[in-house]
Amino acid sequence: MISKMSLSATCESVSQKRTLSSLLAGRVVKRLKQEDGQKLQEATIQLLEQQQNICSLLREVGNPDLCNIFCTQNGEQKQSESEGISSAVAVSLLVCELRHQALQLGVPVAVLSVKMMLERLMEITETEEAKEEEDKRSGLLTSSQRVQLCLLLESSKELLSQGALCPKLLWQEYRRDQRLPKLEVVYHLHFHNIVTLKYIIESDEGVKLWLVSQAKALCGWKPPQGEEETKQVQQKVLSTVVGVLLGSGFELSQESAAADRRISQLCCSVLDDMLFWLLDTVEEGLTLQCAGAGSELWIQIFDASLCGVSVSVDTLRCFFTHSLTQTLTYKPRLTVSDAITLQNEWTFAKASRLLTSLFCKLAVIFSVEQLLCHLQQVLETHEVNWKHVLCFLSTLLVYNPCAQSSLKELLSRLLSSAFEGYDLENMITAFLLARQGALEGPGIFPSYSSWFKMSFGGGSGYHATSKKSLVFLLKFLSDLVPFEPPQYLKVHILQPPYVPVKHRSLLMEYVSLAKTRLADLKEPVEDMGIYEDVSGATGASLQPQCQAVQDVEKAVSLFESTGRISATVMEASIFRRPYFLTRFLAALLTPRILPVKADARMSFIEALKKADKIPAAQYSSYVESCQKQRQQDGSALCLDINDDPLEVLKIQLQEFTELVVEGNDGEMSAQLSRISHTLSVIFPGRPDELIGQTVITIHLNTPPSPELHVKVINMILRNFCQCMLDASRANPPNKQSLWASRFVSVMLGNTQFLSSLICRLWDLFHNQGSSLSAAHLLGLAALVVHLHASMSHSPLVQLVPPILPTPVPVGEALSSALVCSTHADMLLCVRLCVAAVCYGICRGDSLPQQQQQDYILNSLYKKLLYLIPRLLPEARRTAITAGGPVSEHQEEKLPGLWSSVTDTNSTWMKTAWHLWRHPAFHQLKHTPQYQLFFSEWLANELRVHRSEDALSDPERQEYQQWACLELYLSRLEEHGGCGGDMKKLFSHLLNAIMDQQLSDRSLEKLDYRGSDTGTCLPDILSRLQELVYEMEVTNLSGSRRSTADVCDFLFTFVSERCSSTVTSASPSISTELSLQHTLNTWNRVLLALPAVLLIKVKSDGGRATLECNTLIEHVNQHQRKVCSPAGLLSCHLTAHLLRGVLCASVRCGHPQEEVNKAWSQISLHCPLLLVSTVHWWERLSPVLLSLWHRLCDGEPLPEQLQLLADCHNWACSLEKGLSSSTLPAAAALLLAASLHRAWQDQGCDNQGFSAALNMLQPERGTQYRQVLVFLLFLCVNDHLSSFLYPQHFSHQNATELCTDLLLMLVDSADWLLIFTSNKQGVYQSITMVTSDEFTRLMPWAFYSLLLQQSAELLQRAVCCPGFLQTAVLCYISLLKLSLEGHTLTPANQMEPFQILSYAKQFLLRAISWTPPTALSPSQLRQLESQCADLDPEVAAALSVHLDPHSLSPEMDFL
Fold it and tell me: pLDDT grade, residue 408 (50/70/90)?
């Protein structure tokens, strides 16, 4: 019999009784046979029928440990089998027992199962401990409760599947006695599909009360840190509830029943209650750190992606629309007057983050137009919460930059509707929305003053149709006055709406009312300027006097440009008369010396006087004061010639502008003559006689011109631009008069003026392009075109610094100011060039082709060929060609080219695209001077600063690949392309990279903007690598011929570059530096290319072999000359060359054998690479070893590489004093280099190295002597390097080692061979190790070393065979070095002439010590002849001491 179990572990007697599980677990379960299953089931049922507690049985069925009883004691039974038996047996037992007891009690099985379920559910959730824990957790279960509940519900699903459980009865019994459901319990019932939430909503009348309260509590509770599972459950519960509410509340169809509609309303009500709770939180001003955290969680549930999982998009739209409406209309307690007053506090920055987050969630699936349309609908049909409405608008504008145009359209509709029906609601709505947009700043929406002026400032305003409309507007503005913030009143006063003169009294009434309100607010308007301050400054106001001066300057400027008194001044004279009389006129009528010809200020004063705006007494006083000032200055009435030339020029230019508009050619010519005369007064330099072309020099780095000259230049440029605009409004360029050409002719007639003009234009284009408007660019572009068209009778320009190598025409000089290095530079350049080329094409439209080209500057045209495809990808795919037909239909569809330039609504991209497709533009591509060559394209591309490029890295890669492979590869060579030749393309890329650092250095000195940014050199290198991949790796030819071709091409290319650098037999320092720069640049390119390209693979009798001759020749001829330090290649270059040998060997049949052959050839003919390899061997060996194993897995290391390792080990062991080390069978230079490196590795310690040298006595054999001679050469090289690079080499260490070696070799003649040029013999390779400079300095090293030796050593040296001949030859060479200036300063601080003197003394002593038989007669005569011209004294000593037959008898007697 099974006793009822208790949840508590402390129950007394009950816990001592054994459960079914324990009874079964106490026995060993044998493997069941198939026929035993039914017997076991019958026996079990019979046992249970005796007495059983169903609730306890259910608890055991829900116990996860139940399955353990079916496991064997040794745990070998599979868990899956156990679970299957457990589930089958447990459910079967439970259902049988339920039916049995239901039959005995006479009740349905479902009733008994519901009772059993509820009892167990209460055990889990309703104990005192559970209630207390749930109160803390706001209705969420603990982890253990959640596990027990899920197990219970899984069992219930089994009961439900067998018809033993009624869900409806379960919920009824659960809700009996008004028991408050737990939200998580409801979620699990819904999740396990036992009692769905939709059914609960439909059947439970009180669902709204408990569901809302539980949802609020759950939102407001924050799970403890670390309980990620609880946090996920919290979100799942809320999202599930919301999903069901959305589905039931907003997925109704037209045919929905009344019950469904009731349920829908209930769901909507629940969601609304939660939304209102959220809005209440916002209204109470709670922050996210307080109760707002719960609101924030509820806002997250509004996430479209979260809600969209369980409902359709249409349902979600319906819900968000409904929620937005509820938000905008929630508690509409604020009146319109409140909104007007408090609107400044409702900006996006000041709004609650909760509210703006809610608006973002609700708006995410709608377009801006849909949202504004809905906003308008809500405003028209509901009472709204103005704070929410305006905050919503601010949020929409801030998060959607495109919303500005949509809002303008909405305001336009509202105003149109307001004035059509005189609707105040639409009117106030428009004003509030416009002001709200303006409060977010000019980057979001135009200022309120701009909007008000645009809407009501002109005769086409909404109010200008009738008097009734005007009255409606003014009445509306008057009604706003008591509530208006002062800044809006000031806007209405300073920029009043347009009012016809006959209705001015209506406006004056409003202005009077607004001023009174400002006075009440202590915001006097009398001292305000009549022009609005559009600077946006928020600091202190200007002093009244300063404000008045600014107003006068503005009024005079407007009068000068329009010829009329501005409406603002006229209005100020009426509505702001105190300010106008006391401030404005006082500033305007400041006494001065009046010019004879009336200037703009005088004309403005006369116009005001005629309009009766200046009191007669004030005007008379002004005139008298001006006359007194002239008399005080001692000057009578000035003649015209002595008037202020700047004022005269201003008047002349203004009159010329009027003549251009009128089109009077005769008067224009006369006026231009007057302008030319005035310019000659201001720029008194003598006009150059037009006898051929002259050259004017423009200094770009000099200080600016005098202020007067700058003002004149700016005035001329502004006038030209204005004339161009005025003329273009009437006619296209080809139908205009010749005013522009004549104007430019006047400029060209004065060289001083032209110089200042070019300087100013160059500065504008190069440094101030961002300040130029579209009108400026159009006028300046036309000016540049006409300057270029006048090239035949204009001087040439030489820029300083010399950006361009030779003097060029004016147009070319100005074109050089337009750089294309940054995005901003490119935009300015393309805008100006588009305007110039369009103007040139249109201006020369009706002219012959040659004259047409006079108006199209080829440098600007080429810039467009470069920039338009770069900035407009669609231009790369255009199919229009110069020679292709253009149908009439197509030409009709294309708008006029000039109209596209002058259209204010057009963008530069539209104009550029139109120009790009224009046939006249494409026809120029076939003219040689208008073709952009590939080399020019590369030069432009390499000047681009990558970090400031208009293109991203992928876009730049795509563009460059298109240009290289699609545009220029197939283009004919005569048109600037490569003619389909990959090698030509390769050559262009290499030349561009090599030239990149030498080009435009002078321009870079002027342009500091890109000094810290990288160029596109890495990108062009990448294109080079891609091209190499296509040429080499893909091996399109299918043979090894391509490898040899690429290798030969590379080395031929660099050889030609080096040959062009060194143009003379005796290179100067500049050419040597240029050669060094060329090879350093080349090495960077070389390291970027695959190493395998550097070694040729040729076929010899059907067998592939390595060919290293080209590489060896390159190293010997070029790399050797620029090594730093001399005699040593860099580690990177050495490694790259060796990798090339190993990689290329794999292409041969026997890689190991080919490597041995190649290295033997390198050792013999390329000693520099051999010495460098030995020097870097410790760093190279791991790299080469790893590479060889990757390339030839399993093959041993080639013998020659192993020999390098052996020599390295031998030198190290010898340096450590291991005399047993045998001499490797290697070349003497290899052994010497290994010893030299070992000496350097041990810190150049000569004492420790002396023991190693003692083991290499030259008496031991020829090879030992050769090793020591080569070692001496390397040490002499160090000796020279210590003078040239003292920071890297120790002079003392190198000299001491040379001394030690001399002591060992002094008796042998071999050591002398390293100091003379020896073309043959075993030591001939030393000249191929070091640079030519070091070879020339060897005679200097000879004497530098010998003069530091002991007398004993010198005596032995003199006795050495061949010493005297070597000493004389070295002395002769030393003399030549001295004469050529190639000298070094010894370490003992001797002057160069001192070492020469000491060398001569030593040589004379050596001659006297040398027996006459040391030299043959032919050798003696040769030495005498060489010394005769350079040093006769040495020649005489040779003759006297070594040629006895030359002595006279007298001398013999003596």
Answer: very high
Total-model pTM:
0.55
Query: Is the N-terminal amide bond of 1067 cis, ω within 30° of 0?
Result: no
Q: Residue 807 gets which letter from DSSP?
A: -
- The mean per-residue pLDDT over the stretch 1058-1074 comes to 70
> What stretch of H or E contains 1106?
strand 1103-1107
* Residue 499, pLDDT above cutoff 50: yes
**Percentage of residues in the chain with pLDDT exceeding 70?**
80
pLDDT computed for residue 1001 by the predictor: 47
Q: What are the helix (H) ranges across 943-1095?
A: 953-961, 982-996, 1001-1006, 1017-1028, 1041-1061, 1069-1088
Residue 963 DSSP code: I
Residue burial 545-563, b: 16+ Cβ < 10 Å; e: rest? eebbbbbbebbbebbbeee
What are the Cα distances from residue 1043, in Å, to 604, 1028, 1053, 1155, 1258? 83, 10, 15, 17, 47
Distance of CA 238 to the CA centre of its chain: 44
Angle CA 523–528–529, to nearest 5: 165
Dist CA 587 CA 1264 (whole Å): 103
Q: What distance in Å separates the CA atoms of residue 406 and residue 61, rounded to the nearest whole number? A: 65
pLDDT at residue 870, as a whole number: 94
- Phi/psi for 697 (5° steps) reads -100, 130
Q: Are strands 796-800 and 1096-1100 parallel, antiparallel or unpaired?
A: unpaired
The CA distance from 1414 to 1363, in Å, is 9
Q: Which amino acid is at 1399?
A: A
Cα 852 to Cα 736, 837, 839, 840, 1452: the distances in Å are 16, 11, 11, 7, 97
Mean pLDDT over 616-644 rounds to 65
pLDDT in tens, 1325-1336: 888 898 888 888
C-alpha to C-alpha distances, 846 to 570, 589, 810, nearest whole angstrom: 48, 53, 25
User: At 37, is the pLDDT very low, low, confident or very high (cuts 50, 70, 90)?
Assistant: low
Helix, strand, coil share of the chain (percent; to 5) = 70, 0, 30
CB–CB of 503/468 below 8 Å?
Answer: no
Q: What is the mean pLDDT of residues 1424-1452?
A: 72
- The angle that helices 1167-1175 and 1131-1145 make with each other, rounded to 10 degrees, is 110
Beta bridge partners of 699: 800
Contacts of 1401 (CB under 8 A, 6+ apart): none
Instruction: Collapse the DSSP code of 1105 into the 3-class scheme (helix H, G, I; strand E, B; otherwise coil) and give the result.
Output: strand
Which two three-digit tokens encode residue 1056? 């030609």
Rounded distance, CA 604 to CA 559, Å? 7
Q: How far is CA 268 from CA 261, 316, 385, 1009, in A?
A: 10, 13, 20, 61
Determine the Cα–Cα distance for residues 160 and 516; give it in Å rounded to an integer.
82
Q: Determine the Cα–Cα distance for residues 950 and 909; give it in Å rounded to an integer.
A: 14
Q: How much is the pLDDT for 1247?
A: 63
Q: In Å, what is the CA distance from 149 to each residue of 172, 183, 432, 433?
A: 19, 13, 56, 55
Nearest to 818 by CA among 766, 894, 760, 889: 766
Place of tokens 């909007």: 451
Identity (one letter) of the amino acid at 51? Q
Q: Who contacts 894 (Cβ-Cβ below 8 Å, separation ≥6)?
A: 914, 917, 918
pLDDT band of residue 1300 (cuts 50, 70, 90) is confident
Kindly give, in sequence order, each residue whose CB lies less than 8 Å from that of residue 1445, ignoring residues fewer than 6 positions away: none
Cβ neighbors of 1132 (< 8 A, separation 6 or more) are 1087
Give the integer Cα–Cα distance in Å for 428 and 415.
9
905: three-class secondary structure by DSSP? coil
CA distance 1336 to 1378: 11
